[in-house]
Amino acid sequence: MDFVYVGILFFALAFALVTIYMCYVLIRVSKSMKSVGNSLGEVEQKLHYLTPELQDTLQETEKLVDDFNDKLTATDGLFDAMDNTGHAINAGSRLMDKQTKKLPEYDSPQTIERLTEGAKWGEVAFKIFRRWKKKSVKNELVVQEENLPAKK
């Protein structure tokens, strides 16, 4: 029976040690929780300051994205025009290729002489047109100057 009392004594001591250790652990957990609570309080205060700043930043970013999207949409016409220009250049290239194949038909001296004569007359007509245009612009300036109010 003495062994039973000694066993109960050891069991009571072990229980007391486990209880003391549990109290020690719970005290440390409590201190850690207080520290976490304080840290979260500071984080909350900082977030109250940062949240409006982040909202403003997001609104500005949204405006920038919308502006970028509008400007990108505005360039669609440019790229369509470039596409049309590319198609026109291809068509012109095909026409040039077709005409180049017909070139031997224009190889006779008479045809070349007629083409040269036509180019000369075209240049003369262009020079006359340019002179006529300059005179027309000068006449417009003279008419405009006559319609101006007199200077004091």
TrEMBL record:
It comes from the Bacteria. InterPro entries: UPF0478 (IPR009293). It holds the Pfam family DUF948. Keywords: Membrane, Transmembrane, Transmembrane helix. The chain crosses the membrane at residues 6-27. This is DUF948 domain-containing protein. It comes from Virgibacillus siamensis.
